[in-house]
Amino acid sequence: MSKRFILSLLTVFIFTLAANAQKQKAKHTFSLGTTEFILDAFPFQIISGEMHPARIPAEYWRHRVRMAKAMGCNTIGVYIFWNYHEAEEGTFDFSTGNRNITEFFKIVQEEGMWLLVRPGPYVCAEWEFGGLPPYLLRIPDIKLRCMDPRYMAAVERYIARLATEIKPWLITNGGPVLMLQIENEYGSYGNDRIYMSRLKELWTENGIDVPFFTGDGPTAYMLEAGTLPGCAVGLDSGSKPEHFELAGKINPGVPVFSSETYPGWLTHWGEKWARPDTTKLLEEVKYLMDNKKSFNLYVIHGGTNFGYTAGANSGGKGYEPDITSYDYDAPIDEQGKPTVKYMALRKLIGSYLPKGKKLPDIPNPLPAFEIPAIGLGVFTSVWDNLPLPVNSVQPEPFEAYGQDYGFILYKTELIGHKKGKLTVTDLHDYATVFLNGEFIGTLDRREGINTIEIPESKVEFPVLEIFVEGMGRINFAQHIIDRKGITDRVTLNGMTLMNWKVYNLPMDHKFIYNLRSTGKNLTKQGILFKANFFIGKPSDTFFDMSNFKKGLVWINGHNLGRYWEIGPQKRLFCPASWMREGANEIIVFDLHMTKPGLVFGFSTME
Fold first, then answer.
1. H-helix or E-strand spanning residue 101
2. Superfamily grouping for domain 386-505
């Protein structure tokens, strides 16, 4: 046998192996029929439960996916938050902690589930700025969600980078990703179909070759402005036959599904907990199951708006900031436990299984424990940790000073008018006001309070300080351009106040790490409290902040998010992975308290 013949046989063998490997990797196919989704040449009903990797510690991803599977889902829906992965312009993070979305995709595939990917660029989701990066707001006249070239340049960079993470996990490459959404609920915002078409082109140009879908409310104007020919139509929500009929008329020839079926709802600060009627939900899901309509439960598990990630609405009541918890009254609660709603949906969906088939067992709950009273002490104050100021003729928003989140102190001397009616136009979002170092009151965008009476002072040039907290940026509809801080001017009796010193206080990880105690200014509101506490094996807990007024909590440097005495949320979720066996550190920053209260750890939200 000649060497040439042996070499030829070896070459054929290698190519055969490679072909078989490729064939095995790409063994599934997914496409859009005229009315149904087609998986491997057969009609396929998507039963999806949505969860967001950014709202769930990575250590719990597999548990939450298994919980969804045990409730009867065959698919996981995910939002990807642009601003979570590109916090600074041009710098992306898809590798650390719960930003590692490829690890999430891998887990979904290992658990035998499919994926619907919803990457924005805008997503809403009750997430800060609807997922858009705040650095865009440093451009004073920028227009969003349209063909503004400055916005689109950032979008193109984001899509090109994200596509490299998604491509290996497409069903066409042997992965679990069935479809990708173009934008989100665009018909509720704008009507630039050139913009929508361009987004689709960008994904295609970057190698995304799975079907696309849009998601809009089931009204004629939303669907006309938000759908695209050739893309499946998602309805937020599709709960009645007439919803599906309308979508089929406006965008014919593609499947229509309920891309957001709501088992729960969001809650704002100062409201009662949202607790939607489960009876109606079960009726909707039964209709969808009976008629083999695909659907995505938004959300099956909400998780938590850790840090500064909670968004806000502006739906006719003024400014409505979202609470830290994203429990959402979802079937799987914030800590990952099944609810009564979960059990009812599991029973309903399970009743449609073929004879002899049954759902997987529900995963065991993750442990949660209680922590006895933690007595905090006064640690330091913002006044003892001020950076060097920036001089500003008039106060400007956070973004003008290169800051996205946290707090800014605006300080000036009163010349001319020294008492009377102070007006901040426009305050975003909450402020404590001081005159000559003495607290005189608060301003609150949520309540529409932007004025305060400045009392007479014996000081020749009284010192005015306005300490502003930027809460969540609006994430829906026409007011999403929501810069933080003092966004226009400050007047006293109509006189515009000039020449300010501006102190950036982002209260980020670096700022908290570098805090130093000096023993000064410990009676002026703006105090940080601190304690060490000791535990055995770490478990999940909820830190109860009922004895404090308004602020933030850090556990071992991790920002649990905001608390506020107006409720309804009083307890902040802390995952076991953020605590240590033995000594742990808690830091509480409260805008109003000058003496600390006690903090307790509980095993449940309520």
1. helix 101-110
2. Galactose-binding domain-like (2.60.120.260)
Q: Which of 128, 260, 465, 469 is catalytic?
A: 260
Catalytic residue among 165, 185, 334, 469: 185
Spatial separation of the C-alpha atoms in residues 586 and 361, rounded to whole Å: 37
Q: What is the C-alpha end-to-end distance of the chain, expressed in Å?
A: 80
pLDDT at 206: 98
Six-digit token string for 299: 């959300």
Give pLDDT tens digits for 76-92: 999 999 999 999 999 99
CA dist 166 → 64, 65, 80, 100, 256 (Å): 21, 18, 11, 11, 24
Give per-residue pLDDT as tens, 594-604. 999 999 999 99
Does the active-site annotation cover 89? no
Q: Do 371-377+515-602 and 386-505 agree at the fold level?
A: yes
**Which range (4-13, 157-166, 544-553) has the least confidence?**
4-13
Which of left, alpha, beta for 424 (phi over 0: left; psi -120 to 50: alpha)?
beta
Q: How far apart are CA 216 and CA 183, in angstroms?
A: 10
Domain 371-377+515-602 has CATH 2.60.120.260: yes
185 part of the active site: yes
pLDDT per position as a tens digit, 438-462:
999 999 999 999 999 999 999 999 9
Helices (H) and strands (E) in the chain, counts: 11, 32
Please name the fold of domain 43-350: TIM Barrel (3.20.20)
Is residue 418 within 8 A of residue 454, CB to CB? The reply is yes
What pLDDT score was predicted for residue 317?
79
